[in-house]
Design brief:
The chain is mostly helical. The chain contains 8 helices and no strands.
Length: 205
């Protein structure tokens, strides 16, 4: 009878032990990994929303997570650029407004180029380590940071009260979303780079 009680005890306790282990492991599914990783970004809710559909590709790879974030940023920036170009053609604008829109279109183009460069560079580095890895990742970080600057420069062009409210609201909202995506991508790139840098750092006694 005592043996049966022990067996039942094991059966009852084992799920609790497994649950505890899963909790301590910090995420056993790609979805958990994405949610946990997105906490390191400035806009975690936007991060989770945009990356969750890529969970199957991302798995639990920091590299794939950063690549997915960059790919989303490129896609949304292209969409935003197309929208701004359409606005420039269809809406009557004052010279100052048109100038800001044209500058923004140029900024978006530069941002797309830099983000695309970043993706190509990350595809070259793989999961490697060492000086070559750090050099490639430094390029990626520089380009993504420059892309974010492009986004913010576009936003600055729509500041002030002189801008038409409808034009400003329509374009600014989309560019702001793109800037948030790029900011998140940069945070995830930095996280991937720092993790590998830490792995290669010498242990100091």
């Amino acid at each position: 009878m005592a043996a049966r009680v022990v067996r039942h005890g094991v059966i009852l306790v084992l799920p609790l032990l497994l649950a505890s282990f899963v909790t301590q492991a910090g995420g056993t599914t790609p979805q958990d990994f994405i949610k946990s990783s997105c906490r390191a970004t400035r806009y975690p809710a936007v991060c989770v929303e945009c990356l969750m559909s890529y969970a199957g590709v991302i798995g639990q790879s920091k590299r794939q997570l950063a690549l997915a974030a960059l790919s989303v940023s490129i896609s949304r920036t292209r969409s935003c650029s197309s929208f701004v170009k359409k606005m420039a053609k269809e809406m009557k604008m004052k010279p100052r407004e048109l100038g800001a829109v044209q500058d923004c279109i140029e900024n978006m183009g530069d941002s797309i180029d830099r983000l695309s460069q970043s993706v190509r560079e990350m595809q070259r580095v793989g999961e490697g380590v060492g000086e070559e890895f750090e050099w490639h990742m430094s390029n990626v970080q520089t380009w993504v940071s420059a892309a974010l600057t492009d986004d913010n420069t576009c936003l600055d062009g729509f500041g002030g009260r002189a801008m038409n409210g409808n034009v400003k609201a329509a374009i600014r909202g989309r560019v702001l979303h793109v800037a948030q995506l790029t900011s998140n991508a940069l945070a995830l790139v930095n996280r991937f780079a720092s993790t590998h840098t830490l792995q290669t750092s010498p242990i100091l006694n």
